[in-house]
Amino acid sequence: MIHIRNVERPELVKQLIRKMAPPLVTLVSSAAEVQWVALRNINLLLQKRTDILQNEMRVFFCKYNDPPYVKVEKLDIMVRLAGESNVETLLSELKEYVFSDLNSMWSWETDRMMKVCL
Questions:
Q1: In the chain, how many domains are there?
Q2: CA 67/CA 22 separation, integer angstroms
Q3: Residue 48 is part of which domain span?
């Protein structure tokens, strides 16, 4: 990411960003601890360049057996990736999370993120 700042050709920057996405997505399917580290790093990358994973939101949908710390990171990443083209998909997914367990902190956090998207 540091070296991309020095690249002056926009088409080369797009090509480099496209090549970054597959390895990052692969790390999301690792064990929970590795997944959390990957998600934290992805979150940092997205703070600088939101276009890195713009078409990969579904990869970050939460699974029922994800640990809470992984779910929170995935949720934050999904909200960062939200745009006009995919906000409906995101809101639909978040609605499922809210109604899956109404008494949990996870439900509360999801509801809070839905309000951010609106």
A1: 1
A2: 23
A3: 3-117
Q: Identify each DSSP E strand in 3-98 by its residue range.
A: none
- What per-residue string of b and e applies to 75-85 under the rule 16 or more CB within 10 Å gives b? bbbbbbbbeee
Provide the 3-class DSSP secondary structure of residue 55.
coil
Half-sphere exposure of 87 (CA within 13 A, CB side): 8
* 26 residue type, one letter: T
Task: Specify the pTM.
Answer: 0.78
Tens-digit pLDDT profile for residues 23-68: 888 888 889 999 999 999 899 888 887 778 878 888 999 888 888 8
Q: Concatenated DSSP letters for 72-105?
A: HHHHHHHHHH--TTTHHHHHHHHHHHHHH-TTSH
Token pair 């690249």: residue: 7
Closest CA to 22 of 59, 66, 74: 59
| Exposure on the CB side of residue 50, measured as CA atoms within 13 A | 8
Q: What is the sign, positive or negative, of the torsion defined by CA atoms of 40, 42, 43, 45?
A: positive
